[in-house]
Recover the amino acids of this structure.
């Protein structure tokens, strides 16, 4: 057994089609393949790619258990494998670095102990959302927050830009629940959003497709009716801009863009 | 067992781009060479994630559960010495979730704050990333405006139009932009 190391990979949201070649290669070659996935296809793929080394960390979740405890146990298990000299691969669904605390923390811990660790990008729910809703964050900008973090930490919204709220169906609940989270704090989130948006502003509940041949679920609903829309843990909320931006003419001229735009106007 | 065969079929699609390509182009032909039974094939062609999940896990397809109204009651005390607590029903109904497959949240808000406080990138990492390899921005603010409407309007006219059609007309109207 050589010196241990860590590679963190993502299996994408839709395992059939979003697994990268590099991720497959690392999963096959790892001494230990730890994974956190909910999709049975992803689980089967992982266990077939590395039948000897595959080990699920999902069993660390427990009903009503604070998720932070679960995450810290995951980190401990990863670090333990690396310390024992194994080439360790941690596979998480989606992008392994987007809304995944254990992956970042495991890398930090492993590096701090002198081992090598790296992360490979994967396809996140936000990537799927951009594609399926046809949104380019370059056009209006895009703010992205975890739903509970958004209102607990007083994040500010710019209603002229796009806004994405993650884990809308888990808002206010820091534990794990298999059959539905406690959403009694949801009205508080709605109250906060109504400070920025008109009540009839159309928002979108988005759920990426997980299986081949399936379409994403996109549900448009007026903001005031969001509570009646039927929330699930796998949904992401997309809020389009409600107002036009205010063009800064002074900055436009200070940046000397007036000249270049006149060139554009001439078709050159 | 049918569930095993379906899972194996999907694993092949996930790890073999050639097989996935065949399936995307002609699902019937791609499935005809396999041991998938007709119910599996029908589920895969249905586009119904609940049906596919049920077949993969060997369960029956169940109807979605109905929303359940949950009332949250706050006790509010009016000002004054003799005031008593008054129960006030708060907010909107909430619902149990349909979870298939099982969703494991991977972050909690409690972890977000410290992550943002600790520097995630050291200065040494930033410099080479910004310089090499050469990055060609795909979109710049200047490109967005004229390219979308050229040659009929100038960039100065574009700002409000970029929002449309993501904003309902009735929302824009009071602001005089339409």
């Amino acid at each position: 057994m050589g010196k241990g190391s860590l590679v963190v990979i993502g299996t994408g949201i839709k395992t059939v089609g979003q697994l990268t070649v590099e991720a497959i290669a690392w999963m096959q070659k790892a001494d230990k393949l730890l994974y956190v996935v909910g999709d049975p296809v992803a689980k089967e793929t992982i266990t077939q790619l590395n039948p000897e080394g595959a080990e699920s960390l999902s069993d660390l979740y427990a009903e009503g258990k604070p998720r932070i405890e679960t995450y810290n146990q995951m980190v401990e298990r990863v670090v333990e494998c690396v310390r024992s000299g194994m080439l360790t691969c941690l596979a998480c669904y989606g992008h392994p670095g987007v809304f995944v605390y254990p992956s970042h923390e495991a890398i930090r811990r492993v590096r701090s102990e002198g081992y090598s660790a790296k992360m490979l990008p994967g396809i996140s729910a936000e990537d799927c959302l951009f594609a399926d809703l046809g949104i380019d964050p370059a056009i209006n900008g895009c703010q992205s927050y975890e739903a509970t973090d958004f209102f607990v930490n007083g994040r500010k919204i710019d209603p002229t830009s796009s806004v994405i709220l993650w884990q809308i169906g888990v808002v206010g609940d820091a534990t794990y629940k298999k059959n539905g989270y406690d959403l009694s704090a949801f009205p508080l989130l709605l109250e906060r959003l109504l400070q920025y948006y008109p009540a009839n502003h159309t928002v979108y509940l988005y759920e990426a497709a997980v299986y081949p041949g399936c379409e994403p679920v996109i549900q448009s609903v007026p903001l005031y009716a969001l509570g009646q829309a039927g929330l699930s843990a796998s949904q992401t909320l997309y809020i389009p801009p409600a107002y036009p931006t205010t063009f800064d003419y002074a900055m436009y001229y200070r940046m000397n863009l007036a000249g270049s735009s006149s060139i554009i106007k001439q078709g050159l | 067992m049918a569930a095993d065969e379906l899972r194996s079929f999907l694993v092949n699609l996930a790890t073999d781009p050639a097989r996935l390509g065949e399936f995307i182009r002609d699902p019937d032909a791609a499935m005809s060479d396999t041991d998938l039974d007709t119910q599996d094939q029908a589920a895969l062609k249905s586009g119904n994630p609940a049906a596919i999940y049920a077949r993969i896990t060997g369960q029956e397809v169940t109807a979605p559960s109905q929303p359940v109204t949950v009332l949250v009651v706050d006790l509010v005390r009016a000002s004054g010495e003799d005031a008593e607590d008054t129960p006030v029903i708060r907010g909107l109904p909430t619902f149990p979730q349909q979870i298939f497959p099982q969703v494991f949240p991977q972050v909690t808000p409690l972890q977000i704050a410290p992550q943002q406080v600790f520097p995630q990138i050291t200065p040494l990492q930033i410099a080479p990333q910004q310089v090499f390899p050469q990055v060609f921005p795909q979109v710049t603010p200047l490109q967005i405006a004229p390219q979308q409407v050229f040659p009929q309007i100038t960039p100065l006219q574009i700002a409000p139009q970029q929002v449309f059609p993501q904003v309902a007309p009735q929302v824009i109207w009071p602001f005089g932009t339409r």
About this structure: Residues 34 and 120 of chain B are 48 Å apart (CA to CA). The radius of gyration of chain B is 28 Å. Chain B touches chain A through 71 residues (CB under 8 Å). Chain B has a mean pLDDT of 64.
